[in-house]
Amino acid sequence: MVEWQSDDAGSVYNFLSRGCQICKQGAGLVLFITGRCNRSCFYCPISEERRSQDKAFADEVPVQNIEDILAEARAIGALGTGITGGEPLMRMDFALECMRALKGEFGQEHHIHLYTGVIPRREALRKLRDAGLDEIRFHPPESDWTGPSGLKEILLDAKSLGLEAGVEIPAFKAAPGIVDAVKEADAFLNLNELEFSETNFAGLRARGFVPEDLGCGAEGSEEIAREHFLHSDLKVHYCPSRFKDAVQLRERLKRRAERVARAFDFVTEDGTIVHGTIEGDLSGALQLLQDLEVPVEMYFCREGQIEIAAPILEDISKELKDISCTVSVIERYPLEDGLVVERIHL
To answer: Regarding the domain delimited by 3-255, which CATH topology (the fold level of the hierarchy) does it fall under?
Structure first.
């Protein structure tokens, strides 16, 4: 363990697993391999698009095959992958296939961790380890938080196989049985701030939880974490919901933008990309660009529009509008057809 540390996003910890260290860098691929689950936790924030669906996503990208996963990992320069769901072990064979492919493509140093709500047999743990799993995080059902059956034993089993092992739960009430099991196994505990989403909002409100004024966290979750879990004799990490946007998503977007930005794209501090767009008479616009000797590396033709360096577009916007073109500067996510967060018409 290290001394207590915190960051601007509100994380508090005296221990960070390797998976969490990679996450803080925005260098972790989030691999969602199924929305199916044999539980119905009232706090589960999974979207309607994914809930109960046998769909897979690599970050925000739908997965049709293993290559889609590897391509997304390359695009963000992933140093590791977190496999989640739903219940990932309901697709055990696919999870194993993904691990082998990731290790085969990026080497043994590519760190892989997995979340699960089940207590697997030792043989299943061995298969996961042999396929490339480095770290496992267990999520006992709320009904077991006072006296979790078999938790200490599975943590010790995982560690005996060379896996980094811990527990991950939301912070909304005390969990003395989990704390005891984690301590006795010398494992780690990750606490997530209780988080509101479209799918769990009614369930959380029915149990008396109130959303914070800003963000999607629940009031009082951090206080519960501090009172019941943030103790110096426990390896523990409290992660607030705003960390996902303030750190994880932003850093991941920056890593992607650095790799996909073209010569004329401007990458912002938030990892978005800024460029200009020309729509309308594209033949006339191309002729104008050639007549003005705009370097070919400063624009790109795609269906329905020309993308171009924003400063150049601003300089020649009058000429383009004179031939009935519509010109704009946009800021978007660094994805194929990424979400446009701002559009300024010139």
So the answer is: TIM Barrel (3.20.20)
